[in-house]
Amino acid sequence: MDLAWLGAGIGAGIAVIGAAYGIGRLAGSALEAIGRQPEAAGPIRTAMIIAAALIEGVAFFALVICILLAVKA
Amino acid sequence: MSSDTLAVNDTLAHNSEHGGSDWILHHIMDANYLDFEPFGTLHLPQLELFGFDISITRHVFFMWVIALLLILILSNVAKSYRKSLIPKGLTNFFEILIVFVRDEIVKPTIGHGHERFLPYLLTIFFFILFGNFFGLIPFSATVTSNIAVTATLAAFTFFATQMGGIISHGFFGYFKGLIPPGMPVALLPLIIIVEILGLFTKPFALCIRLFANMTAGHVVILSLIGLIFIMQTVYVAPVSVAFALFIYLLEILVALIQAYIFTMLSALFIGMAVHQEH
Question: What residue in A sits closest to B204 (Cα-Cα)?
Fold first, then answer.
């Protein structure tokens, strides 16, 4: 009956939902842009990777807090 | 109670006494010994200085290995340019990386005067790259998954940014330049607080991003392999190992991407501080 573990699990799940939604939309826009202008595929790919890493960075904030919860309990 | 039930109860007790996830933490965290599991362990010296614990731990040892490797390889690369400007062999390979950092990361973001920051940015790019890759070698440790290491790298970027800005614009000029031009006076206190906080949150995000990326990757691999032991059956092994292999390959990509992102964001912050007009 350890609520911290439950909280950590639910928190990690919600963080992953947010990150996956954001990166999914990012990938959709990037692919659409590449489809419109295939010559710009290189710069678009670079910008996509940078934006994905930034979004993932924010999701990892939540993950770190969840790990702290799960470990300190 | 039959002997089967007693055996099952015994196994369950043994499992929960082991702790569900303690072994995962044991494989990720720093320790005072080097672990070559079937062959034994190597204890590292524990030193203390004025009450501070400066013992040589696993991460310290591998940081020294990485530093030594970088010094040997990169000084070799630099020396080979004295013989001929056309690179051969190892120099050729590292020239690809160095030119990539200079032309794709540093020159577009810092622009004019980027040569001053090139040594620092190249150093952290190669250190993070080697640090991330060393984590993928068996029996080794991921130096960049230690939050102290990533916090130090972020602190270096923080100092480089502030020094770059202060040298370019003067001490008060730099802080005055943080405020966007044409700001209504009523918003000034709020903007000052937000900008000062922003100075600190950006390196903090750098630190957490690298630390969490490296730690999470290793936790996922260990959890997938650990499924075999949790389910206590060998038939889950093919699936488990296949997934773990896939995540391992993804980790190689993540190692490259994280080194690139850290360097790119550091260059971006330095560029924003040095060319505040933009």
Answer: A61
Q: Model pTM?
A: 0.87
With an 8 Å Cβ cutoff, is B257 touching chain A? yes
d(CA B91, CA B79): 9
Neighbours of B217 (CB within 10 A): 23
pLDDT in tens, chain A (73 residues): 688 889 999 999 999 999 999 999 999 999 999 999 999 898 898 889 889 988 988 898 898 889 888 887 6
The CA distance from B58 to the nearest CA of chain A, in Å, is 21
Q: Within chain A, what is the greatest distance between any pair of CA atoms?
A: 57
Whose structure tokens read 């330095």?
A: B270
Reference B102, options B258, B269, B263; nearest CA is B263
E strands, chain A, are: none
- Interchain CB distance below 8 Å, A50 and B209: no
**Secondary structure (H, E, C), B38-53:** HHEEEECCCCEECCEE
Tokens of B176: 């005055």
A53 touches chain B (CB under 8 A): yes
Domains and CATH numbers, chain A: 3-72 (1.20.20.10)
Query: Which residue among B104, B212, B260 sits closest to A60, beta carbon to beta carbon?
Result: B212
| Interface predicted TM-score (ipTM) of this complex, two decimals | 0.81
Burial of B156 (C-beta count, 10 Å sphere; 0-12/13-18/19+)? middle
Q: What is the DSSP track for B218-246?
A: HHHHHHHHHHHHHHT-GGGHHHHHHHHHH
